[in-house]
TrEMBL record:
Cellular location(s): Nucleus
Residue stretches of biased makeup (Basic and acidic residues): 194-203
Disordered, as annotated region: 184-203
Organism: Cyprinus carpio
Subunit description: Heterodimer of SAE1 and UBA2/SAE2. The heterodimer corresponds to the two domains that are encoded on a single polypeptide chain in ubiquitin-activating enzyme E1. Interacts with UBE2I.
Full protein name: SUMO-activating enzyme subunit 1
Length: 348
């Protein structure tokens, strides 16, 4: 959808050029114009959602719709910085709107208080990218499949305690450009010698290289057949957080919520049972995910939200601006190790 944006909508005013001067210098005017013509739907306004909203608004997208049907609680208010301290009981999207808009008046920020699951299919078609947080697996699969039919970029992400992830599906053909050092042809003069004829890289000049990459769907990435010999051989390079995500999404489906600190004992036992069931279904040993994981996957940790939200926001900007190589397609963050991992699960 981003490729069809009319140029009339992408005109950068003098005021916008001044506002986005640093970004234009960083990734170029054309990339900023593409951002300026992009509309994004962000679902979920907790800690991670607030970080993503901030990054997109500051980057200068054309419009951002904040969608969340849940009410503000003390826990949700403490998890993010866009909700005022006196907003308990209000809708989370509506309560986040004022501070979000103040970040950049040039971006059209809207609040939608409906549940994302109640939205008809064509609701999603008005956007160039959809970012889903705090959604069920079935809903993410549904929206990803819908958007794939219209070439709309889809991103999913969540934070569970010290752990977080991001997934992106940019379609079967995502086009982008990369800036590369310019290669200068060698001289053909006879007295220059063989070394002079070899291509050389000129560090003072660069050129823009067009590239295309393919992504797999969210459904395909989660439904890998681990009994397959090729998958088994790759098992050692798959981060344990991939399997932790499967457990936590199953918990969310079964309970209609995420693990809660005030029911730690009960939820911990359920998580262990789900771990056993999920890994057994995959044909894998429960030892792959040690019991200690239950101690570190409750609530949203603000520093983890900042890291994952930074990566998620950056990937959205790269996809919409069509500048620089995107991640394919999972990013996992383990706050205990302080490291992130990117893994590719194949194309569609």
């Amino acid at each position: 959808m981003i490729d069809t944006i009319e140029k009339e909508e992408n005109i950068i005013s003098e005021e916008e050029a001044a506002q986005y001067d640093r970004q234009i210098r960083l990734w170029g005017l054309d990339a900023q114009k593409r951002l300026r013509g992009s509309r994004v739907l962000l679902v979920g306004l907790r800690g991670l959602g607030a970080e993503v909203a901030k990054n997109l608004i500051l980057a200068g997208v054309k419009g951002l719709t904040l969608l969340d049907h849940e009410q503000v609680t003390e826990e949700s208010r403490r998890a993010q910085f866009l909700i005022p301290v006196d907003a308990d009981g209000q809708n989370q999207a509506q309560a986040s709107l004022e501070r979000a808009q103040l970040l950049n008046p040039m971006v059209e920020v809207k609040a939608d208080t409906d549940a994302v699951g109640s939205k008809p299919d064509d609701f999603f078609f008005q956007f160039d990218a959809v970012c889903l947080t705090r959604c069920s697996k079935d809903l993410m699969v549904r929206v990803d499949q819908l958007c794939a039919s219209r070439n709309i970029k889809v991103f999913c992400g969540d934070v569970f305690g010290y752990h977080g992830y991001m997934f992106s599906d940019l379609g079967q053909e995502h086009h982008y450009v990369e800036e590369k050092p310019k290669v200068v042809k060698g001289s053909n003069e006879a007295n220059d010698g063989p070394e002079a004829k070899k291509p050389k890289v000129d560090p003072n000049e660069t050129t823009m290289v067009k590239k295309t990459v393919s992504f797999c769907s969210f459904k395909a990435a989660l439904e890998v057949d681990w009994t397959n010999e090729k998958a088994k051989n790759n098992l050692k390079r798959i981060p344990v957080d991939y399997f932790l995500l499967q457990v936590l999404l199953k918990f969310r489906t079964d309970k209609g919520r995420d693990p809660q600190p005030d029911s730690f004992a009960e939820d911990s036992q359920l998580l262990l049972q789900i771990r056993d069931d999920v890994l057994e279904t995959m044909g894998l040993s429960s030892e792959l995910l040690p019991n200690t994981f239950v101690s570190y996957c409750f609530s949203e940790m603000a520093p983890v939200c900042a890291v994952v939200g930074g990566v998620l926001g950056q990937e959205l900007v790269k996809a919409l601006s069509q500048r620089d190589a995107p991640h394919r397609n999972f990013f996992f963050f383990d706050g205990l190790k302080g490291s992130g991992v990117v893994d590719y699960f194949g194309s569609k």
